[in-house]
Design a protein that fits this description.
Largest sheet: none
Shape: elongated
Structural class: mainly alpha
Helix content: over 70%
Number of helices: 12
Radius of gyration: 25 Å
CATH architecture of one domain: Up-down Bundle
Order of helices and strands: HHHHHHHHHHHH
Distance between the termini: 52 Å
Strand content: under 5%
CATH class of one domain: Mainly Alpha
Oligomer: single chain
Length: 322
């Protein structure tokens, strides 16, 4: 039985694309920017002698540059994820990297496989663009998860600071120094903007809209209401911290309850595709006798439609709104 090595080569090239972009990112911007290394990047830049205003402008540019480039064709699909991940690469750099990785994938497919030129061209573009999207999406998910986990502690630290007599601006500054990234640099930017005259509630609202996190919107609204109508901000934030922590625990509980159903859905959706690939790898001529049948193409489209419907239904069943 002949087993083709081409699917293995495709997989290895795709993994190589991911390793290349991660290595390039760490080489250009340093290990401190990696989400696996929980340091306060803003304070690290200040300790190295950078001016406070320069650091603020650099971080603000990194955090807003992607949404400003949503009008670029195809980049709109990546802009929101790249902003949530706070990718330091500019949109132009990301597009150039996509093109470069597509070229590397094309050379790898040319050397390692004997597929036709159109197939190699399409697969190389899919690997280059898909690899960047997969990498950015994984960074965004990891960063958002860390922010959700850090936020209750950050709000409680604000409450303690307010109760000992610090003003809210000082409480924000304390949070930016005491906790770690990614939330530390976000609050550090707010502290710097407040020091240069920006309204605190407005800065919090801008951060909440940029990150698109509901709990941060609650924080921004609470601070804005207190600024307009007065009241005990410490008590308001203490109640908010309890709500955020309770929501976080509820989200985790729902995620644990639906984990089995989610993995079942992924397995049921992925198994037919895996089986199709395995059949073609172990016996490339398995479908040769039926490919000329008039019902072959309609049957393939019918199966693909049911697989897509299965993905939608399984996602709908496990997407519980809290």
């Amino acid at each position: 039985m002949f087993i083709s090595a081409e699917p293995i080569i495709y997989g290895l090239i795709f993994i190589g694309v991911l390793v290349l972009v991660e290595g390039l990112y760490l080489t250009v911007f340093g290990k401190s920017i990696s989400l696996n290394n929980r340091v306060n990047r803003r304070l690290d830049m200040l300790e190295k002698g950078a001016n406070r205003e320069e650091v603020m402008e650099k971080l603000r540019k990194e955090m807003s540059q992607h949404m400003k480039s949503r009008k670029i064709p195809l980049y709109s699909l990546l802009a929101s994820k790249a902003q949530k991940a706070a990718i330091a690469f500019s949109p132009r750099q990301l597009i150039m990297i996509m093109l470069g990785l597509s070229g590397v994938a094309f050379m790898g497919l040319t050397v390692g496989t004997e597929t036709s030129l159109p197939v190699r061209a399409v697969m190389s573009v899919v690997m280059g663009v898909g690899g960047i999207y997969f990498w950015v999406n994984s960074k965004a998910k990891k960063r958002m998860s860390m922010i959700e986990e850090q936020l209750p502690d950050a709000v409680e630290l604000m409450v303690r600071s307010l109760r000992v007599g610090h003003p809210f601006s000082s409480a924000i500054q304390i949070v930016s120094k005491e906790i770690k990234d990614p939330l530390a640099s976000e609050f550090g930017i707010i502290a710097d903007e407040s020091a240069y005259g920006r309204d605190m509630g407005e800065a919090l609202k801008d951060m909440a809209e940029r990150i698109e996190l509901q709990d941060l919107r609650f924080l921004a609204v609470a601070v804005s209401i207190q600024q307009q109508s007065g009241g005990n901000l410490a008590e308001i934030l203490a109640g908010l911290a309890q709500v955020i922590r309770s929501r976080f625990r509820l989200f985790r509980r729902v995620k644990a309850i639906t984990a089995e159903a989610q993995w079942s859905g992924k397995f049921l959706s992925g198994f037919p595709v895996f089986a199709l690939i395995a059949i073609n790898v172990m016996d490339p001529h398995y479908y040769d006798e039926v490919m000329d049948h008039p019902y072959f193409i309609p049957a393939c489209l019918f199966v693909a439609g049911f697989l897509t419907l299965n993905l939608i239904v399984m996602r709908w069943l496990t997407n519980i709104k809290v």
